[in-house]
Amino acid sequence: MTSGQFQLDLAEAAKITAPLGHATMMNDEKSVEFAEGSASGRESLRGPNGEEYPTEEEVKSLRRVCGTVPWSAYTVAFVELCERFSYYGTTAVFVNFIQQPLPPGSTTGSAGTDGQAGALGMGQRASTGLTTFNSMWAYFCPLFGAFVADQYLGRYKTIQVSIAIAIVGHIILIVATLPSVIAHPHGAIAAFSIGLIIFGLGVGGFKPNISPLIAEQYELAHPRQTVKSLKSGERVIIDPTMTVSRIFMYFYLMVNVGALIGQIGMVYAEKYVGFWLSFTLPTVMFCFCPSIMFLMRNKYVKRPPTGSVLGKALRLWGFAMKGRWSVNPVTT
């Protein structure tokens, strides 16, 4: 065999570090090649697009750095900021809206600097019950949202549908805070409860799919480590794991920024203007989500649904318990 080049099937080369399900790399008909490496005579593995993969020696010796974060990932992070602003901004005022009575002379629930904002005056029991239900509902619905995305729609479509559902819930919550509706507490609490349920369904479809979507913007295009020479001449390894870690640092920065501004801002809105504003501003902010997702629809990396593990697990559990399960714990 000469010192030039010899061919390897790409499928075998990709198996080294490529993640499962990365069909693009595995099915590519191109091949990778061993080419002459640096001046020291080391050989390096090259991919179909000319990217250089590290040798075993380089994996042990070269410094690892983050790659370039794609702009599509930044837009997904901003979408998450808007959603967290809307969620925490809305839920931050639930207790006062339900528990505290309407301040004297106010029709919107605002009470000024020295007063206590309130609207329905239904007491602590009602506020605790509804806010606890909202927390439970917001953590239960993601199971359904994740199943739909994995089994049927994919993450991008599920997020868009969930945003539409959540906007309907937001609008109903706004209606429940209008002065003419607050004047009739029983009607307001009924509208509020319906809006809360629909709002939670939208949150449930959004939450489990947005974080995997942002990771896919880099992972699928960069499935394995590559070698790059810096301007200083230093050879470094572009590590996808480090890059994805940086992406999620930005992602959770946006989560915390959105949640913090939403909660603080809406508390001031309810106190000095009224509950209608503290529910309307999060809705306006949330409306940026579908706009950005639609404008970036052709830029996002989208993984098709591959089937839900949850459904398979439930079928396996049902098969295992068939003929053996009973309502009587003694005989089960």
SSE blueprint and pairings:
Blueprint: E1 7-9, H1 10-14, H2 23-27, E2 31-36, E3 43-46, E4 52-53, H3 56-61, E5 63-65, H4 71-91, H5 94-99, H6 123-153, H7 155-176, H8 179-182, H9 185-219, E6 226-229, E7 235-238, H10 240-272, H11 275-286, H12 288-295, H13 309-321
Parallel strand pairs: 5-7
Antiparallel strand pairs: 1-2, 2-3, 3-4, 6-7
Structure characterization notes:
This protein has helices at 10-14, 23-27, 56-61, 71-91, 94-99, 123-153, 155-176, 179-182, 185-219, 240-272, 275-286, 288-295, 309-321, and strands spanning 7-9, 31-36, 43-46, 52-53, 63-65, 226-229, 235-238. α7 (155-176) packs antiparallel against α11. It is α+β, with helices and mostly antiparallel strands and 332 residues long. Residues 1-42 have low confidence and may be disordered. The longest helix is centred in the middle third of the chain and has 35 residues, at 185-219. The strands form two sheets. Strands 1-2-3-4 form a four-stranded antiparallel beta sheet. A three-stranded mixed beta sheet has the order 5-7-6.
Q: What is the helix/strand order?
A: EHHEEEHEHHHHHHEEHHHH
Sketch the major β-sheet: 4 strands, antiparallel
Structural class computed from helices and strand pairing: alpha+beta
Mean pLDDT: 87
Backbone CA Rg: 27 Å
Task: Give me the count of strands.
Answer: 7
Portion of residues in beta strands equals: 5-15%
Q: Regarding quaternary structure, how should these chains be classified? A: single chain
Which consecutive residue ranges, at least 5 long each, have pLDDT under 50?
1-42
Shape, please? globular
Strand order of the largest sheet: 1-2-3-4
| Helical content class | 55-70%
Q: Quote the distance from N terminus to C terminus.
A: 67 Å
Q: Total number of helical segments? A: 13
